[in-house]
Specification:
heterodimer, A: about 160 residues, alpha/beta, five-stranded parallel beta sheet, 7 helices, 5 strands, globular, B: about 675 residues, alpha+beta, eight-stranded mixed beta sheet, seven-stranded mixed beta sheet
Chain lengths: ~160, ~675
């Protein structure tokens, strides 16, 4: 079964629990615990939904990882998760135009992720909407790289790397 | 009627000589002053102390006007007589010493200083002549001969002869005082407690006293030199010319002239205040300011401000510890010394003489004053001509305490107070702000650290919470597939409770993350208190529902308060949670009431529970210790009080009984808060 959702988070315990919950729902999910393996998995699977933690090891933050993913396939839905985002950082993310959604890590995170995954699976099961893909490409291109760097820098200082 | 006459016993001379002047240094200073008054340009004090103590001698030689046999008999042999007091001017015509003598104001005029020789030793040889062409007059005194009180003073023979000069002739003419059979050993250290800034050897102390004798900061010393000679090699550091003290460090120079006003009431004060480059750099005040002030009215004791002593000129030198480097040396003895006509008046300025009340002022203010007494130095200058009312005591223990002296002291102390005030404003107070700024920065750093730590902890907690949420989802799915309905229900109940707990943790984490800045002073703002109260109550709803107790918020004030909303919300939520718990613990189901009222201009949030009340033993420590009102570790009220203190609000227990308790949070008035902010 091809998974339409990819989760990238370096917290193995967290990843195991999320994968188990997806499994209980019968929803396939690919999980990776590093940036490189995550990008590699996306190249192969071209997932509809990519969920990435903001605080990945090293300087490559989840935000930039998602930026790289969007360059490969702009219509992939990008969800950033984090346990340490302040209201100000959340506002910055919302205006960046890069990601589709930010979800703080909480007790109800799994519910949100499962809903997102079900929709992604539905999209993957249907024919590719080239119209949507083209629109997504246009939107992603509109992301100002300098602004993205500024957002990332601001988030890094707010959240710590 | 009979006429009587004093006929002093020989022992009077003995008493006067040995006991009139207590300090042996002062006895030597007296002879140096005599040399000055005799127009000398140089006086040499030789200590011959190389041999055994009984051979020690001190010889004081000057190149002054000297005396012939007649002059010596008229002056020296008549204690209490002084030509200086009667005639003025010079006795020695136009010799260089005579010319100098004519221009100098005599430092002594009582004719008693010479008796001080008896303080130094039992034998006295005086050699004197007016010119090198004359033979030396050598007069020998043996003070032992004056012990007998049955003999009259005039009956003690004093031998004198014209002939050879002293064994160690320093000058071709003048006067030489040679003291033998010394009263004590000048090579020794001074016993007792050491004095800060003072030598502990006799010769070192003498050298210091001699250096203070001449006014240090005027050219007065230019035509009068003092030289110390010591023949013992290990004491050679005390030998050589004695130089007036110079100040190496002069951060503040407070120069003043105080004059009586022509009206007779009050005084005119002219001040020149000079500040060092480092004072200017540190304080921003100019390098020099000149002021003209009047001091009138009454002094501190209620007396009218007068100056019956004539003009006073003085200079205070001070290096505030806030500016001077630690351990920096003045290069001169501490103390403000009094000089009359350029010669020091003892004992003013000595370490144990607080004539300006600087130490007393500090002591009377619990050790606090801008001026640190041990860092103050300087001098006060008066003249005999302009201050005739200021008369020195015969024992050299200062000036006679009369009205003129009281005025002098009062005016000088007023000047010290003014200097102290100025130092407070210019140096001390601004320096206080530096620690405040440093404390503020330290607090900010602590806050930043606190925030970073909070985020790190929050981050590390939120991941596992989300993971538990996912695991609960798995458990729920498994439970839903169970055929055993009882087991299924039990498991789902349990997962439901766990989820509620997790959401409470989530909410707490979210509140922590919301504290992006802990600078509460910056965060104070117009706040709709009703909204804050509603938000706090909302946070308690889940708990209130779970225990079946409602929280009722009375319709209240509709006006903003100025405070920090998060602090207020935390405090109200804590009180409401406590109230719910207390009501539940009393097994009651009455509603907890929250109201917002105005009292004496302040907005007050009142939270009333229906609990069993706070025990009498707990009331006093309710906000002080970890007292729990609801069975859990009770840091809540302590924290609440501290949190509210940050925004100048207060929490109190207003009433308590077995029917319930009432807690109140009083917010400061808008005006107070704005002022604080």
């Amino acid at each position: 079964v091809v998974a339409s959702t990819l989760l990238i988070d370096d917290d193995r315990g967290f990843v195991e629990s999320i994968a188990a919950a997806f499994s209980a729902e019968g929803i396939p999910i690919d999980v990776r615990t590093s940036w490189d393996s995550g990008v590699e998995a996306f190249r192969i699977g071209m997932h509809e939904l990519v969920i990435a933690d903001y605080n990945l090891p090293g300087s490559r933050h989840g935000l930039k990882l998602l930026g790289e993913v969007s360059q490969m396939w702009a219509s992939a839905r990008l969800v950033l998760i984090s346990g340490a985002v302040t209201p100000t950082a959340e506002d910055l993310l919302g205006t960046s135009g890069l990601i589709d959604r930010f979800v703080p890590k909480s007790a109800d995170l799994i519910t949100t992720l499962i809903e997102e995954a079900i929709q992604a699976a539905a999209r993957a099961a249907g024919p590719t909407s080239w119209q949507d893909a083209a629109r997504s490409h246009g939107e992603r291109r509109a992301v100002d790289e300098a602004a993205l760097d500024a957002v990332d820098s601001a988030l890094s200082s707010q959240l710590g790397s | 009627m009979n006429t009587l006459f004093f006929d002093p016993s020989a022992r009077l001379q003995r008493y006067l000589g040995r006991e009139l002047i207590g300090d042996p240094n002062l006895a030597i200073v007296e002879f140096v002053k005599n040399a000055y008054d005799a127009g000398a340009s140089e006086v040499v004090i030789d200590f011959f102390v190389a041999g055994p103590p009984d051979s020690h001698e001190v010889v004081i030689s000057d190149n002054g006007t000297g005396m012939g046999p007649d002059s010596f008999e008229r002056n020296w042999m008549r204690p209490g007589f002084s030509y200086k007091a009667r005639v003025g001017g010079s006795q020695a015509g136009d010799t260089p010493a005579g010319v100098r003598q004519a221009t100098r104001v005599p430092s002594g005029e009582k004719g008693l200083g010479r008796l001080a020789a008896g303080r130094l030793g039992e034998g006295l040889h005086v050699y004197t002549r007016e010119t090198a062409a004359e033979p030396w007059l050598h007069v020998t005194f043996d003070w032992h001969a004056f012990e007998n009180m049955d003999r009259a003073l005039r009956e003690i023979p004093i031998s004198s002869a014209l002939g050879d000069g002293p064994p160690h002739e320093r000058f071709p003419s003048g006067t030489v005082i040679r003291i033998t059979d010394m009263a004590f050993n000048w090579t020794q250290l001074i016993r007792g407690r050491k004095l800060p800034g003072r030598s502990d050897s006799r010769l070192g102390r003498l050298r210091e006293d001699l250096s203070l004798l001449l006014e240090p900061f005027t050219p007065a010393g230019a035509d009068f030199h003092i030289v110390l000679g010591v023949d013992r090699p290990e004491l050679s550091q005390f030998a050589g010319p004695v130089k007036p003290n110079e100040l190496d460090v002069r951060d503040y120079v407070w120069e003043f002239t105080i004059s009586p006003r022509s009206s007779g009431q009050g005084v005119a004060v002219v001040r020149r205040i000079r500040r060092s480059a480092r004072v200017v750099a540190k304080t921003g005040h100019p390098a020099e300011t000149v002021e003209r002030k009047r001091r009138g009215g009454e002094d501190q004791t209620g007396r009218p401000t007068l100056l019956r002593s004539g003009p006073i000129h003085g200079v205070f030198y001070y290096s505030p510890p806030q500016i001077a480097s630690r351990g920096e040396e003045f290069g001169r003895s501490r103390g403000v010394f009094l000089y009359r006509d350029r010669i020091r008046v003892e004992p003013y300025g000595s370490p144990d003489d607080d004539w300006l009340g600087v130490q007393a002022r500090k002591a009377s203010r619990q050790g606090w004053s801008a001026i640190q007494p041990n860092l103050l130095t300087g001098y006060v200058e008066i003249s005999r001509a302009q201050n005739p009312g200021l008369v020195d005591m015969s024992n050299r223990n200062g000036l006679v305490e009369n009205e003129a002296f009281e005025d002098l002291i009062e005016q000088l102390r007023a000047e010290v107070r003014e200097f102290d005030r100025r130092l407070l404003d210019e140096v001390v107070r601004p320096n206080w702000t530096e620690p405040t700024v440093r404390a503020r920065l330290a607090a900010k750093r602590a806050q930043s650290f606190g925030i970073a730590l909070t985020r790190a902890v929050t981050h590390s907690v939120r991941g596992p919470v989300a993971a538990i949420g996912a695991d609960l989802h798995v458990i729920e799915r498994i439970a839903e597939a169970l055929a055993d309905q009882v087991a299924k229900s039990s498991i789902l109940d349990a997962t439901g409770r766990v989820k509620r707990h997790l959401r409470e943790i989530d909410n707490s984490m979210a509140r922590l993350m919301a504290f992006e800045s802990l600078d509460l002073a910056q965060a104070i703002q117009d706040v709709d208190a009703r909204k804050v109260v509603a938000s706090a109550v909302e946070r308690t709803t889940a708990f209130a529902d779970s225990v079946g107790i409602s929280v009722e918020v009375a319709p209240g004030l509709d006006e903003p308060v100025i405070t920090e909303p998060r602090a207020l919300e935390e405090a109200v939520a804590e009180l409401v949670m406590n109230a719910i718990e207390a009501t539940r613990a009393a097994s009651r189901l009455d509603a907890v009431e929250v109201s917002l009222i105005r009292e004496n201009g302040s907005v007050v949030v009142v939270v009333e529970d229906r609990g069993a009340g706070v025990g009498i033993d707990e009331v006093d420590k309710l906000f002080e210790t970890s007292t729990s009102t609801r069975g859990r570790p009770g840091f809540g009220l302590m924290n609440t009080r501290e949190l509210l203190a940050l925004v100048n609000a207060e929490v109190e227990l207003r009433s308590t009984s077995d029917a319930g308790s009432s807690f109140a949070i009083t917010l400061p008035s808008a005006g107070e808060t704005r002022k604080e902010a």
